[in-house]
Every structure is written in structure tokens, then in C-alpha cells.
Design brief:
The protein is of the alpha/beta class and 656 residues long. The protein has three domains: 1-156, no CATH class; 157-465, TIM Barrel (Alpha-Beta Barrel), CATH 3.20.20.300; 476-636, Glycoside hydrolase family 3 C-terminal domain (Rossmann fold). It is 32% helix and 11% strand. The strands form five sheets. The chain has an eight-stranded parallel beta sheet. The chain has a six-stranded mixed beta sheet with strand order 15-20-19-18-16-17, with helices on both faces. Helix 13 (397-407) crosses helix 14 (419-426). The chain starts with a helix and ends in a 20-residue tail after the last helix.
Length: 656
């Protein structure tokens, strides 16, 4: 690709990513702060520029007076084929003695190999250290990158880390960051302003840590109640998901017009139809590799409208093959969306005009071995066996790269296997202009975020910026207000201050701190509180994610600890509250007669639950999905259709 065509390509991308232009003629631009830990500055016209390539001269890509589009085009023109291929990889920051990058520190030697030999400069971080420590680790990693041939800074991404859920390889847990309800909690409150409030705080926390990309929000529709990833969504309504998703993107990126210099890139996911998985089986697993959005595909697409209008800098295709589904009158090719030209190049880029980064979900180019497909007790699936090449299992890794790139992928997540794509490029199987297009798309946000000037953060400032008292107060308030009061027989709530309480599933210290007297004998209690999650089963314990995600039934049965606790309190004729974390839509019919109060939450501390129970705070939430009446009704509903079970016990929007 010629320099002129590279520049033209970059300019076509600029409007979609919300890029800033050059300074007005005649104005002296403001000198940005430069991070000069590895390379020196180049003085020009009374200004200073980081000498990223160390040649002592000012190259266009080093000139912060130029637009990010111009700079990205110049940089792409200077890169070798190997450097371009490395740019298309989004790997995992290597951890020292950890699993999937989760460790106490980065392995900087291994990182040096990835940066200098494989030329990878985009990574997910899975460290969960104290703020100052994580900032120091990210600074050390940026120093490794700054010493590279062209001095390309790292883009560091993360799965959500400000909520309650944690699943290795899919959702993180922060240390020191504010803790908010899951996105379902925001859907329960139905207020975009609260999403923006959260997003602005989380954005500040991410940037203070040296994190630049949020692999969120999750805009899948929760239409199959057994699906285990629903807590990370805005529920079952496409209209609500679109509105709140747009607010999320605006807040994280810093504007409704795309990514700003102090923003965090959002990668909205998962495009598209992910929530419509039969039996709720998860598409990280071989047995869950199909979804059936069918006649409801339009609704699953509509949930992304707000985020696309807000110019999300990234979007992530889903895992599952969309079985028996048509788009524009044509049956979709039976491949995962990351390999679907119909869903990416046709619908997303063509019909919807999307020009940001398309980042594949993790491991779609890897081979699914026997442990991946059919793990056993003797040979369970391990982290190295994770692979999700659904629909293209018969292709080689090299062929998967080519197919994904031609379909519209810009970066491949969870891999740094550069060899097969290099071979394809050298064999002429990849169009160089198409390769350059993706390289520019990946590089533009690095310039927009100011990483080429200064990728470093202040560890002391990170400590000060994260977990501020006022921010914690806002998060705690939403933990309380987002709860949903579903049942309050005879107005038994609020419970009395200072009374005796019998607990199950709740920390006695939290109740004591709230001024209650905790008793061991339920017969002595004035009231009882049973805390529980939605029931589940482990149906596939030998699969890596099957052993981590909840599956199976949603109803309580005798023998479940929470069921037995409710029965015990009911037998003692003690007013009883079920405080349930609706990580999936529960079936409550069996336990309804044993409760006086049902208080649902979407991520709340014991203290937050107790404050509502004692009348110190009010629950304002409404259900962001229906609660089916029975498991029979769950099995009979369409996994793609929102809230379609027969005669639900609690319809969408319920709440006292």
C-alpha cells in the first residue's frame, strides 16, 4: 500500500473513531507531557516530541501536532510485514507463575519476547493488585515496549473489574476499585444518568491504573434464562439495552462522539445473538457452540444501536454458530460470527457503516483438541486446551486467520501465534491493503489516547484516584437502590432495629455491625434472612468453563442449602426474607410459600441487603427480565425470544 493510499485509508477511519484534528493555523499548540523513560525528546520549533524510534529526527508518526489518522498512516508505512502481523494479535500479558496471566507480577522477559520478536502491542491484563502496584507493573511493561524498534506503546485491556462476578478468563475482580452492581442492576434502575456516573468513575480508575480498553459492555440480550452470562448484560429488553449501552460507551470513552484523549476504549460485545443459546449452554464450550436467534435476530441486533451511535471504538463478535438463522433473506453461513462475512463485512461494516476495531473473542483460531471436545475425569480440559473455532474446526490455523481477516476481523483475541498469518501473507493469501487497513485501525486509538507521548501513570496518583470515599458512597448507594422488592407479605418489612436474627448465607459480623443480635437457634429469632444465588447445577464439570459457569435448573429443591434453611425458618414460624442474587432468572414457585419477603439483588454486599431489610435504604429496582413460573415453562420457551415463558411468576418490570 502506498503512503498516499495509507493516508486515505486512515482518513476514512477518522470520523468513526472520533479523532481530533490538527491545531488551527497560527496557534501554538499546547505542549503535552512526555514520558521519556527510555527514549529522549526531539526539539522542533520550540516544542518537544518523543523520539519513539530513537533516530534523533522527528518522524510524522512522532509529531503530536498531526491527526491520529495521519500519524497511524505514517507508522503503518514504516512497519515491516512481521510488525504488521504482530499488531493484529491481542494477547494476554504474561504473568510470572500464573494461569492465563493471573499472577502477582508480569513476566517482563516473556513480554520482551512477545514485543520484540512477535511485535505484539495489545494485551489483556489479568493482574488484580493494589492500585499503586498495578500501576507500577503497567509502567514496567510500557518501558519494555518503548525500547522496541518503533517504540509502539502497549494497549492494555481488561474484562470488567468493578462488579461482583469473577470467572477466570471472562470476568475480572478489581482490588481497590469501586464495586458496583452488575449491569443488570443498572437495568433494574433504568436510568442512563446512573450508568454515566458509574462509567465516568470507572474510566478514571482504569486510566489511573494504566488500562486503556474496556472489554465491555456486554449488550447480549438475556433471552434464555439458563444462560450463565446474563448478569453482565442489561437484561432482556433491546430498547433498554440500547439506551443504557449508549450511555456506557459515552461515559467510558469520554464523549457521545467517540473516543477522547482521557477516555477508555469500549469493545461492545458480543456481536450478535449470543444470548439465544439452547438450554443456556455456554459457547466457550464445544457442547455450547450453537445459538438460535431465529426470527428474533433483529432484536438482538437492536440492542447494539445506542453503542454504535456513540461510536464505540471496538466491537467483539460472539462465539456461537447462529443455527437456522437468516439475514436479509439469506441463511447465515454455519460459522462463528468472527468468521462470518455476512455479519461483519456485510451487516456491521456495510449496512451499519461501522469503522472501528473488530476484535475477535478469545481463541477462535486455535485447534479444539480431544480435551476441548470430550474431556474426561482422567483428562479434563485445561487452560491450554481452550479453543473456540466453531464452524471452522476443519480449517487450519492459517486458513482461519485468512477467513477471519477477510470476514472483517482487525485483531485476533487471546493469541500471539503470528507464524500462520505471516505464512499466509507471504503466500499471497492476504491482501496487503486489507492488512494495512486493520493495522491503522489498531494504531489510531493509541495516538488518540496520547500513548505515544506518555504511556506511563503515577502510582501515587493511582492510589488517590481509585476507591475515593465519594465514589464508594455512590457505588454503595446503587447496591441498595438497584435491589428489587418482589414480596412483602403483610408489610413485614422493614424488620425492627436491634432485633434477634437467624442467618443463612450471610456474614454474622455484618448483621452485628447493623445492630442486630445474631442467634443460632431459629426458634429464638424475631426474623430470619436467607441469602442465596439462583439455583444451578454443574452439568459439565470436566470442561474448563463448564466447571466455572452455572448451568441447569433454576428452581429450588429439597436438599439445596437455601431451600432447607427456608423450610427450617418456616417450620419455626419466623418471618423470613429470601435475599437472592439473580445471576440468572430464578424459579421461585417452590419457595414462595416459605417466604414473607423476597428481595432480589444484582450484586450487593451484606450491608446493602441489611440496610434495605431494616428500612435504612429503599429498593427502587424493577426486574430487567421475567421470572418464569416453572422449569417446564423454561424448557418450553424460545431461547431467542425475550420474556416469553407461559404465565411468569414475576413479569418483566415487577417490583413493589
Amino acid at each position: 500500500m502506498t503512503p498516499a493510499s495509507l493516508k486515505k485509508c486512515a482518513l476514512l477511519l477518522s470520523s468513526a473513531i472520533g479523532l481530533a484534528g490538527c491545531a488551527h493555523a497560527g496557534q501554538q499548540p499546547d505542549q503535552p507531557e512526555l514520558g521519556l523513560r527510555v527514549r529522549e525528546a526531539v526539539p522542533v520549533d520550540g516544542l518537544r516530541f518523543r523520539d519513539a524510534d530513537g533516530d534523533g529526527r522527528l518522524s510524522p508518526y512522532e509529531d503530536w501536532r498531526l491527526s491520529p489518522a495521519d500519524r497511524a498512516a505514517d507508522l503503518a508505512g514504516r512497519m515491516t510485514q512481521a510488525e504488521k502481523v504482530g499488531t493484529l494479535m491481542h494477547s494476554t500479558m504474561p504473568g510470572r507463575d500464573g494461569q492465563l496471566g493471573r499472577a502477582l507480577s508480569y513476566d517482563l522477559d516473556e513480554l520482551g519476547t512477545l514485543v520484540n520478536d512477535k511485535h505484539v502491542t495489545s494485551f489483556i491484563t489479568r493482574l488484580t493488585l493494589a492500585p499503586a502496584q498495578l500501576a507500577e507493573q503497567n509502567n514496567a511493561a510500557q518501558e519494555v515496549a518503548a525500547a522496541g524498534r518503533l517504540g509502539v506503546p502497549l494497549t492494555l485491556s481488561t474484562d470488567p473489574r468493578n462488579h461482583f462476578s469473577y470467572v477466570l478468563g471472562a470476568a475480572e475482580a478489581g482490588t481497590g476499585t469501586t464495586q458496583w452492581p452488575e449491569l443488570l442492576g443498572f437495568a433494574a434502575l433504568r436510568d442512563p444518568a446512573l450508568v454515566r456516573e458509574f462509567g465516568e468513575i470507572a474510566r478514571r480508575e482504569y486510566r489511573a491504573l494504566g488500562i486503556h480498553m474496556a472489554l465491555s459492555p456486554q449488550l447480549d440480550l438475556l433471552t434464555e434464562p439458563r444462560w450463565p452470562r446474563g448478569s453482565g448484560t442489561f437484561g432482556s429488553s433491546a430498547e433498554l439495552g440500547s439506551e443504557l449501552g449508549g450511555a456506557y460507551v459515552e461515559a467510558f470513552q469520554g464523549s457521545d462522539q467517540g473516543l477522547q484523549s482521557d477516555g477508555v476504549m469500549t469493545v461492545v460485545k458480543h456481536w450478535v445473538g449470543y444470548g439465544a443459546q439452547p438450554e443456556g449452554f455456554e459457547a466457550h464450550n464445544y457442547y455450547g457452540r450453537f445459538a438460535e436467534p431465529g426470527d428474533y435476530l433483529d432484536q438482538h441486533i437492536a440492542a447494539f444501536e445506542g453503542a454504535l451511535q456513540a461510536k464505540s471504538a471496538g466491537i467483539m463478535p460472539a462465539y456461537p454458530i447462529l443455527r437456522e438463522t437468516q439475514l436479509n433473506g439469506e441463511t447465515l453461513e454455519p460459522v462463528g460470527p468472527g468468521f462470518s462475512a455476512q455479519l461483519l463485512k456485510g451487516l456491521l461494516r456495510g449496512d451499519l457503516g461501522y469503522e472501528g476495531i473488530i476484535l475477535s473473542d478469545w481463541a477462535i483460531t486455535r485447534d479444539c483438541n480431544e480435551r476441548c471436545m470430550n474431556p474426561t475425569d482422567a483428562e479434563p480440559q485445561r487452560a491450554p486446551d481452550i479453543a473456540t473455532p466453531w464452524g471452522v474446526e476443519d480449517l487450519t490455523v492459517r486458513q482461519r486467520y485468512v477467513k477471519g481477516l477477510n470476514a472483517g476481523i482487525d485483531q485476533f483475541g487471546g493469541t500471539d501465534d503470528v507464524g500462520p498469518l505471516l505464512e499466509a501473507l507471504e503466500a499471497g493469501e492476504v491482501d496487503t491493503a486489507r492488512l494495512d487497513q486493520s493495522v491503522i485501525r489498531v494504531m489510531v486509538p493509541k495516538f488518540q489516547l496520547g500513548l505515544f507521548e506518555n504511556p506511563y501513570v503515577d502510582p501515587a496518583a493511582a492510589t488517590a484516584a481509585i476507591g475515593r470515599e465519594s465514589d464508594i458512597a455512590k457505588a454503595d448507594r446503587l447496591q441498595r437502590e438497584s435491589q428489587v422488592l418482589l414480596r412483602n407479605e403483610d408489610g413485614v418489612l422493614p424488620f425492627g432495629q436491634g432485633q434477634k436474627v437467624w442467618l443463612h448465607g450471610m456474614d454474622a459480623a455484618a448483621a452485628s455491625a447493623a445492630g442486630l443480635q445474631v442467634v443460632d437457634d431459629v426458634a429464638e429469632a424475631d426474623f430470619a434472612i436467607v441469602r442465596a444465588d439462583t439455583p444451578s447445577q454443574m452439568l459439565h464439570p470436566n470442561h474448563f468453563f463448564g466447571s466455572r459457569y452455572k448451568e441447569g435448573r433454576l428452581n429450588f429443591e429439597p436438599g439445596d442449602p437455601a431451600y432447607d434453611a427456608l423450610a427450617r425458618a418456616n417450620e419455626a414460624q419466623v418471618p423470613t426474607m429470601l435475599a437472592i442474587f439473580l445471576d440468572r432468572p430464578a424459579v421461585l414457585s417452590e419457595v414462595l410459600p416459605m417466604t414473607d419477603v423476597i428481595l432480589a439483588n444484582f450484586g450487593a454486599s451484606d450491608a446493602a441487603v441489611l440496610d434495605v431489610a431494616l428500612g435504612r435504604a429503599q429498593a427502587h429496582g424493577r426486574l430487567p427480565f421475567e421470572l418464569p413460573r416453572s422449569m417446564e415453562a423454561v424448557r418450553e420457551q424460545d431461547p431467542a425470544a425475550p420474556d416469553d415463558s407461559t404465565n411468569p411468576l414475576y413479569p418483566f418490570g415487577s417490583g413493589l
